[in-house]
Amino acid sequence: MRSHRTALWIASILVYAFLYIPLIIVVVFSFNDSKLNAEWVGFTFDWYKALFNNHEMLLAARNSLIIALSASSLATLLGTMAGLAIHRYKLKVLSILAFTPVAMPEILLGVSLLLFFLQVLNMTLGMLSIIIAHTTFCIGFVAIIVRARLQGMDESIFEAARDLGATPWQTFHQITLPLIRPAIVAGALMSFTLSIDDFVITFFTKGVGEPILPIQIYTMIKVAVTPEVNAISTLLMLLTLTLILIATRFDAHALHGKSK
Amino acid sequence: MITHRRAKWLMSGPPLLFLLVFFAAPSLIMIFTSFRFPGEFGGLAPISIPTGENNGNYGLTIETYQFFFSDIIYLEIFLKSFAIATLTTLLCIIMAYPLALLIARSEKKFRNLMIMLVVLPFASNFLIRIYAWMIILGPESAFSQLINSILAIFGVAPVTLLFSSFAVLIGMVYVHLPFMILPLYTNLEKHDPILLDAAQDLGANGWQRFWYVTWPQSLPGILSGSALVFIPVLGMFAIPDILGGTDDIMIGNLIKDQFLGTRDWPFGSTLSIMLTLTVLCIAGLFSWFARYQTRFL
Asked: To pair with B55 at 20 to 30 A between CA atoms, which of A84, A126, B227, B264?
């Protein structure tokens, strides 16, 4: 019995190491005073300085932030509506339309949207096309989270509200909305992270004008790797880490009923 | 009743409309595009009105599909993608199982933290996670040198780890591992420990308890994890693009090249539809398995 437990621990620690060592290496090399990502030479902030003097990169970060904020707001609004509608009215069509983009390989959505934008809408690809594309796949994620929250709820609350004479709007505003708020916040944070992280769909729906963060990183990795990539990676990790901490805090508060 | 109906459409109308326009319509356009002729300079040839002159031709064709099946190389690339997806899924099961089991059997207060530690690296940027392996597998890295000095002891010539199928596989496992750990943990966490006690009372040893009690119960978890790993791996293009060599082409790379390289949209659409059909078959197979299991367990 004991030896089994030990074996399980060793295997698990190895898996955790497999998950973390690569990322730790990226962070460590972002402070390494060498152009090669091979061995530790000395400590430096040079790669961060280079990053903040890289006009293209800053522009890319700004653009990605705009895209992520717009797409996640839109997806949160539409996804919450979809989650509520799927739960309450059991709309089969809507659930298929919302959940399929989540389940299928990303490249398919990217390619079909590329065709649609160019062929049907005759659109110049750019920020707008990326925002639309990101919204399309984020709606499903938000809807899944909101629906999961609704499924775990006692339906009698809503009946009670109706019996006490609340209009549908009052029920929604005073009962449903506060109850699903943690799910909405979780969905918003998730779609923000998904959007700022997304490479594949962005790759197909991007234009030529504006630099976008994942595309910029991709080009750096493919063409010329410098530790600047490590620096931007480290900063992005810090950003997502902060978002996750906020999300868990919010969740803990919501669960204990402290939020208002 | 009127207000109820209005509420229904107020709630479902906007997302329905958005998804019809930006998901359903593009999918249909892709199907349509696969039956068209490529344009002379990329893109598409115009649709023609059938007249006597062009023999009643609408400008539609099934040529791209014939082309797909006529050249064995496309089938080979599909099979190779299948092989990589299968291997990735198996490796993920092997790596995820002990960790998921340990978390499920840990004290309740530690479980959330342990799961959080699984999800955390997954929250960093997708490209960065691939890039990390470029550093580790690079020819000058400590890891590569270690592997090669071990190989040298056995008299094996040094190998390049980066830009190989091996690198692609590692990248695939690394990116998709959490998708296996989470559903597996959710399943294992629900197991009733009384069953294990009962097995022990009946004289089963540790291995027997695992094989006859834990493993069969965990199959639904493995199944949903496998679906979550297999399907995205099948359509992946970034990982072979960054970590693979020139031979490591998967379906995704083929599709990408048609749209952004050679600009043969009809053939790119045909390939995408083939991928969609494959994914649908696999998803169907997984859900069939899932139902089959619940009937017999």
From this structure: B264
ipTM: 0.83
d(CA B273, CA A38): 43
- Residue B36's φ and ψ, nearest 5 degrees, are -105, 170
Q: Tell me the domain boundaries of chain B.
A: 71-296
With tokens 């923000």, the residue in question is A192
The whole-angstrom separation of Cα B219 and Cα B208 is 16
Q: Are B226 and B233 in contact (CB under 8 A)?
A: no
Residues 6+ apart with CB under 8 A from B221: B100, B183, B184, B185, B186, B187, B188
What's the gap between Cα A142 and its chain centre?
A: 10
Query: Which of B17, B41, B91, B99 should be substituted to probe chain A, the one whose Cβ sees the most A Cβ atoms within 10 Å?
Result: B99
By three-state DSSP, how is residue B38 classified? strand
Burial class (CB in 10 A: 0-12, 13-18, 19+), A254: middle
Q: Are A226 and A134 in contact (CB under 8 A)?
A: no
Per-residue pLDDT band for A112 (boundaries 50, 70, 90) equals very high
The residues pairing with B43 across neighbouring beta strands, listed in sequence order, are: B264
Instruction: Using DSSP, state whether B42 is helix, strand or coil.
Output: strand
Residues of B (71-130) whose Cβ lies below 8 Å from A: 95-96, 98-99, 101-103, 105, 116-118, 120-121, 123-130
What residues of chain B lie within 8 A of the CB of A64, using their CB? none
Query: Are B283 and A103 a contacting pair at CB < 8 A?
Result: yes
Q: What angle do CA A82, A188, B103 make, to 5 degrees?
A: 100
- Count Cβ atoms within 10 A of the Cβ of residue A92 and give its class: 0-12 exposed, 13-18 middle, 19 or more buried: exposed
Nearest CA distance, A85 vs chain B (angstrom): 5
**Does residue A86 surpass a pLDDT of 80?**
yes
Distance, in Å, from the CA atom of A151 to the CA atom of B155, rounded to the nearest integer, reads 61
- Nearest residue in A to B135, CA atom: A37
Does domain A48-255 bear CATH number 2.60.40.10? no
Going from N- to C-terminal start, the domains of chain A cover 48-255
- Joined together, the tokens standing for residue B297 give 């367990």
Q: How far is Cα A225 from Cα A212, in angstroms, rounded to an integer?
A: 18
CATH code 1.10.3720.10 for B71-296: yes
Confidence (pTM): 0.85
Residue type, B13: G
- Which stretches of chain B drop beneath a pLDDT of 70? 1-4, 40-43, 45-59, 293-297
Contact B15 A22 (CB under 8 A): no
